[in-house]
Amino acid sequence: MNSDLLHGVPADTITRREVSYDHEGETLEVSMGPHHPSTHGVFRMDVKLEGERIVRLKPVLGYLHRNHEKLGEKSTYLGSIPYTDRLDYFCSMTNNWAYCIAVEQLAAFEVPERAQYLRVILAELTRLQNHASAVGFLVQDMGASGTPLMYAFRQREKILDLFEALSGSRMMCNYMRFGGCRVDLPAGWLDQLKVLMNGFPAFLDEFEKLLVSNEILMARTQGIGEVSAKIAINAGITGPMLRAAGVNYDLRKVDGYGIYPRFDFKVPLGEHGDVYDRYMVRVLEMRESVKILNQAIAQLPEGPILDPKAKLRGFRPKAGESYGRIEAPKGELGFYLISDGSPNPYRYRIRPPSFVNLTVLEDMCLGANIADAVIILGSVDIVLGEVDR
Amino acid sequence: MLAGGILKGLAVTARNFFESFVSKERLTTVQYPDERLPQIEATRDFPFLVYDGPDAMAGLRCVSCQICEKECPPKCIFIEKSTDRKPDAAGKLQFYPAKFNIDISVCMSCQICVEVCPFDAIKMDVEFELATDDRFGGLLLDKQKLAKSNEYYHRIHPTEANTVDGKLAAARAKVAAAAQPKPQVAAPAVAGSEVKA
């Protein structure tokens, strides 16, 4: 033994302790959250550990429960739109869209051409900013404190500025209406968007150079938190998490809602369903979103933005039910409405992608180290406003 | 090479660091409150009541129809309708709000009140530095605090305010044309619309 390391302690006084690697150790229960910085909000993981290994994980939800569905049943159809902004507060535009599709099915409104294009543009911008920040947060969970996240946020801020110039608010847009959109583009908005889209590939190049080939990132993410295609399908997982498991299921292609069939884009798929694949699927989806946006900007027609039949105030759809769903950045976001002919829906139910994607958290985390649980949760990309509703 | 990817990433960080000294694109931080970003025109936060003319309480466009109160999703508006009527800007006898309170601690800035108002009487403000140490009274705005002039509206949302003024002038002209046989009502209305135009 190197005597320098002993700091003057005589070597023969140190005895080697017995170390056993196969004993039945005591399990330790750790409560991660509800204010743990890795949980992206108020979410608790009740983890049972054997050493560093997770042997049980119980997600504890409901800290941000706001009675959203009951509020939806008590508000008018118009009054529910601003509440949908607050579901997944990163993606208020796509939340608006899903809700509007449900009401449009109920009332058979026709959305004008220009409004359809505006919706696609805004939804893809939402996807860009959501994926950029989701990747940033994921890398921050791995310990790259701040830098990649701030690069993502710098770009996200430009998109939010566009949202503000159009709708008046950065995050709580309250922009779409059943039958179209609320206001038309202000002067110069499209030029700003074109400038942003010209610069976006450069940002993606830089972002990929920063992270994609990083050895630490690969070591931390590859083979971690694997979900097989079978489990993913059985659990109802959607969005980038399902596609990372290799299942080709994107509602933009499957349903072709709105005017998505007109655009030429690919759906990136993973092979392993691990954290790295989920991360890469998001990175690649951003490239496809830029492609869709460029096509939509080029084709954007003139015309009205709201169906003249659409009645916003005092709107009473005839009795019936409808389910409107879209491919939100986090997965399939659906709104199920039952109307009894009154100004409020009789039943208002949300199928939130982050909540459903969270159901396999324990399957992904069992056997992993506790530090991996943090990045597995980060790779699910949850927003607690939507999980708890 | 083992650390190739890491070095590549560090090169990006280094580039960002050095370019932040010369490029606004790389250093986007704004030193609030010393520096402020220019206001985006469509920005909204809390509602205010528009009035025409010099007297805030007499010139309120609100006729106390209470549609905003009904439609407000979080129900933060409280209106008490007047029992008497007085002439509005177009000279027509209208009710006015005896009380008009907005609790901005409840308001969620959705601007549905603005959307449903048929009289263009309620609009969205851009004032955001509203911190107060009185969380009940300080955030419950009454009619006096809510009333802001049309000139102020023009200053914060010029494009929208011009559209609204055009719409109101057209409506007044229609009222004036309909009231042609009764010039004593029409005269002040026409004069009012000229001032506005």
Description of the molecule:
The complex is a heterodimer of chains A (389) and B (197). With 389 residues, chain A is an alpha+beta fold. Chain A has one domain: Cytochrome-c3 Hydrogenase, chain B (Orthogonal Bundle), CATH 1.10.645. In chain A, 45% of the residues lie in helices and 13% in strands. Chain A contains 15 helices and eight strands. In chain A, strand 4 and strand 5 form a beta hairpin. In chain A, helix 4 packs antiparallel against helix 5. The model of chain A has no long low-confidence stretch (mean pLDDT 86). Chain B is α+β, with helices and mostly antiparallel strands and 197 residues long. Chain B has a domain of 132 residues: 2-Layer Sandwich (Alpha-Beta Plaits). In chain B, 37% of the residues lie in helices and 15% in strands. In chain B, helix 5 runs antiparallel to helix 6 and helix 6 runs antiparallel to helix 7. The C terminus of chain B is likely disordered. The interface between A and B is medium-sized, with 40 and 30 residues.
Q: Which fold name corresponds to the CATH topology of chain A?
A: Cytochrome-c3 Hydrogenase, chain B
- The spatial strand order of the largest sheet of chain B comes to 6-1-8
Q: Write down the overall geometry of chain B.
A: elongated
> Structural class, from secondary structure content of chain B?
alpha+beta
Task: Classify the oligomer.
Answer: heterodimer
Total strands of chain A: 8
CATH class call of one domain in chain B: Alpha Beta
DSSP helix fraction of chain A: 40-55%
Q: In angstroms, what is the radius of gyration of chain B? A: 24 Å
How are helices and strands ordered from N to C of chain A? EEEHHHHHEEHHHHHHEEEHHHH
Q: Which fold does the CATH topology of one domain in chain B refer to?
A: Alpha-Beta Plaits
What is the SS-derived class of chain A? alpha+beta
The name of the CATH superfamily of chain A reads Cytochrome-c3 Hydrogenase, chain B
Query: Mind telling me which CATH architecture of one domain in chain B this is?
Result: 2-Layer Sandwich
**Main β-sheet, spatial strand arrangement of chain A:** 1-2-3
Work out the radius of gyration of chain A. Answer: 24 Å
CATH class category name of chain A: Mainly Alpha
For the record, the CATH architecture of chain A stands as Orthogonal Bundle
Please report the distance between the alpha carbons of the first and last residues of chain B. Answer: 73 Å
